[in-house]
Amino acid sequence: ETGVTQSPTHLIKTRGQQVTLRCSSQSGHNTVSWYQQALGQGPQFIFQYYREEENGRGNFPPRFSGLQFPNYSSELNVNALELDDSALYLCASSPGDLHTDTQYFGPGTRLTVL
Amino acid sequence: GESVGLHLPTLSVQEGDNSIINCAYSNSASDYFIWYKQESGKGPQFIIDIRSNMDKRQGQRVTVLLNKTVKHLSLQIAATQPGDSAVYFCAEKGAGSYQLTFGKGTKLSVIP
């Protein structure tokens, strides 16, 4: 087990709604990254947070936003949901400092947008 | 753009045989590579990683080989077991980059 947990495990929303997904990293893991994994594809990088600040972002629109808290928890918020947002959302945490490369993934949240 | 890809989308092996999963990458600036195993309904599980200053790294029953000349990465699994059945992803990270870039994955099926 990685010690990374995510909630909820499954979620169903309708188009246009907003969603908040949560992640809890291991104690001491200062870096958290979020990924979107469409069915049959590899994970795609959304953004990364280090010590509560966003320090890297992939090719996702601003309606994808995040927060990281001092207690090693974080959130992914998605506004104005679209059908194509249906995917498995993964968070991954890294121990140590900003330049630690290894990322440990949580089990993911399966989001379905109807 | 730069990408990481896999040669074979599916691989079937007999239990007890060795498995080799291949991966090609195109970003010459990549300096860190990692293999993940993903079982159905679960998140990716770290298997083994390697930095660009190495050619080979071994773990428990797994070996990763890196050929920077041809930009090729492989994962070898010794004495493959039914529990090894999963989708395997390689991912790369460029120097100074924040993100891991994943390929599409190879599905490994172990025949009992």
Describe this structure in words.
The complex is a heterodimer of chains A (114) and B (112). Chain A is mostly beta strands. Helix content of chain A is 0%, strand content 51%. Chain A has no helices and eleven strands. The model of chain A has no long low-confidence stretch (mean pLDDT 92). Chain B has 112 residues and is an all-beta fold. Chain B has one domain (10-111): Immunoglobulins (Immunoglobulin-like). Chain B has strands spanning 4-6, 10-14, 19-25, 30-38, 45-51, 56-58, 62-67, 72-77, 86-94, 101-102, 106-111. In chain B, the strands form two sheets. In chain B, strands 2, 4, 5, 9, 10 and 11 form a six-stranded mixed sheet that branches. A five-stranded antiparallel sheet of chain B has the order 1-3-8-7-6, with no helix packed on it.
Range of helix content of chain A: under 10%
Characterize the largest beta sheet of chain A: strand count, sense, and whether it forms a barrel.
7 strands, mixed
Q: What is the chain-wise order of helices and strands of chain B?
A: EEEEEEEEEEE
Which residues of chain A sit in consecutive blocks of at least 5 with pLDDT less than 50?
Answer: none
Q: Profile the largest sheet of chain B.
A: 6 strands, mixed
User: What is the 3D shape of chain A?
Assistant: globular
Global mean pLDDT of chain A? 92
Output the structural class of chain B. Answer: mainly beta
Counting structural domains of chain B, the number is 1
Helix tally of chain A equals 0
Q: Report the principal-axis shape of chain B.
A: globular
